[in-house]
Amino acid sequence: MRVGLTQHACPPTHTVEQNRQTAADMIRDAAAQGAQLVVTQELFDGPYFPQVESDEAFKFAEPIPGKRTQFLCDLAKDLGIFLTGSCFEKRAPGLYHNTSVMIDPSGSIMGIYRKMHIPDDPRFYEKYYFTPGDAPSCGDDYERRGGWKVFDLDIARVRGLGLGVGQTSQAQANSGTQPQTPSPSPQTLKTGLLVCWDQWYPEAARLTALQGAQLICYPTAIGWQPEDDAAEHQRQRDAWVTIQRSHAIANGVFVAAVNRHGREDDITFWGSSFIAAPGGAILAQAPADEDAVLVADCDLLLIDKNRQGWPFLRDRRVDAYAGLLHRYLDGT
Amino acid sequence: MRVGLTQHACPPTHTVEQNRQTAADMIRDAAAQGAQLVVTQELFDGPYFPQVESDEAFKFAEPIPGKRTQFLCDLAKDLGIFLTGSCFEKRAPGLYHNTSVMIDPSGSIMGIYRKMHIPDDPRFYEKYYFTPGDAPSCGDDYERRGGWKVFDLDIARVRGLGLGVGQTSQAQANSGTQPQTPSPSPQTLKTGLLVCWDQWYPEAARLTALQGAQLICYPTAIGWQPEDDAAEHQRQRDAWVTIQRSHAIANGVFVAAVNRHGREDDITFWGSSFIAAPGGAILAQAPADEDAVLVADCDLLLIDKNRQGWPFLRDRRVDAYAGLLHRYLDGT
């Protein structure tokens, strides 16, 4: 499975349309390199507007489906790939979410994930804008599944501009000969969607992995503040890498983190997007301050191998985890 | 708060009594360096017997209280410190646990923690020996607290051989003068006990932190196997450091990991004991292959500072975590 990440700046002078053009060029580049799934950065086509609280910024929100998702759907269809994009969703007047959409190679929206954990810190005033996610389909399943989402990506559906399972099958079909061995069964990449602040919560990664996720994607907008010194900057980015690698370790899954870069007002976003393998090894990482199309192969057999070696799922003490459903265990 | 860790080998030629003497010398050294709490490695006074399944090895088990804990209690009392030791506990014929005891400066056992997650992998046949932990006090609290344990260490009770709050107070008392400022209120170090395999489970760290833990201790016995190459060895140790640093990040707590070193039969234990600060920075780390007394100061004010900067506890989605109490979310 080949996964592509698109890391870019959204310069203050750029319009939404210009940012979309940047993203489109990079998504196209990733597809040309054989990516079967491409993941955008958080709120990929706009400035990081939560840096201030202003009702002006609600203009960046759109319904889903809407123009922004149509742009992504057209691109996915044109390239014949799976594409997940991070959007500012207007659900109703006065009700907005930070929402990822998963789009299939026919250009249809498979479903959405609404960011569950919402931060609020100086210059990251997200609680003003985003209602915490709920479950888009609140059926019987809700109690178990909560709002956590995993999508089954049937990779055989990828038409693909580069290498990939889909193209290999086509080559076999065109050769006019019977394959010596049976065709590989269609492969599915079970992809979980989380967003930014979710990345600090082991609960979110675990719940997504327990639904079968083989890959967890974290579109992200995180950066440095001018008050902090270089050592503190380094510590923060190191913590950000470490916590996400820890999800790959604890759950035996691939993790893809996609962060914007560049300075916007007071924040310098630190890029450094990466893909980690089950067990936490970093497969590929982008620089801190450049546009980057990051492509990596995710060998799904590594999941079995990793989890057989360190079988953490076997030994979870589900009989003793009830406290996790409490805010704090201080008796109040 | 000054914390000391004792990392040593348990050479195959050594008796339990010799290993206890090694540990005692190192614990004494840590206390002399001002440690107010000392943490031993896992099963500190014996070989890592779970490398094979043999009923011969049950000879290493003792009741609690018993000779092993009396040895630790005498040492804690003599040094006037808090001491936590990792023991093979015989609870009843045919019922054994991997158990940590927390001992106060008067030499009394404050309580125990029984390892909750038990591994079983080639050369780590712990399920043969250790029954998974339960809650030593199964009252009304059990549903919330499970078997997870946090101990309130009143640091003012530490008599101490080195620097520390206890000694500062003594110095003030001896000076015969009234202090210019009110004495600092007695400080408590809330210490959570987990063991080895628990370290791979974010659930265990979270549940311990939710009970107020400021420091989580992980006595450990983990090492390399001869079939794996140097790159795989490095990957494993890096994952082990990363997952434990991630607990310090996700929970804003100090983490102390204490691992044995040295070759025992087929396993080369990798030492590398360390103490991490809230946010994940490593304060001190021991080498991979030497005896080491590791001492570090844990400034508890860092916990507030870290959690105010990255307030993860504020935003947990306890309404959507029910799935964590399930084995797997596949509908079966």
Task: Please characterize this protein's 3D structure.
The structure is a homodimer of 332-residue chains. Chain A contains eight helices and 15 strands. Chain A has helices spanning 16-32, 67-79, 126-129, 142-145, 165-175, 202-210, 230-251, 301-309, and strands spanning 2-7, 37-40, 82-92, 95-103, 109-114, 149-154, 188-193, 215-220, 223-224, 254-259, 261-264, 267-270, 274-276, 282-285, 292-297. A six-stranded mixed β-sheet of chain A has the order 5-4-3-2-1-15. In chain A, strands 6-7-8-10-13-14 form a six-stranded mixed β-sheet, with helices on one face. In chain A, helix 1 runs parallel beside helix 2 (67-79) and helix 6 packs parallel to helix 7. The longest helix of chain A is centred in the last third of the chain and has 22 residues, at 230-251. The first copy, chain A, starts with a strand and ends in a 23-residue tail after the last helix.
Order of helices and strands of chain A: EHEHEEEHHEHEHEEHEEEEEEH
Our estimate of the beta-strand percent of chain A is 25-35%
Oligomeric status: homodimer
Reported for the largest beta sheet of chain A, the result is: 6 strands, mixed
Terminal-residue CA separation of chain A: 48 Å
Query: What is the number of beta strands of chain A?
Result: 15
Largest sheet of chain A, order of strands side by side?
5-4-3-2-1-15
Report the average pLDDT across residues of chain A.
91
Range of helix content of chain A? 25-40%
Poorly predicted sequence stretches spanning 5 or more consecutive residues of chain A: 163-180
Most extensive protein-chain contact, per-chain counts: A-B, 58 and 58 residues
Overall shape of chain A? globular
Radius of gyration of chain A: 20 Å
Q: In DSSP terms, counting alpha (H) and pi (I) runs of 4 or more, how many helices of chain A?
A: 8
Counting helices, strands and paired strands, the structural category of chain A is alpha/beta
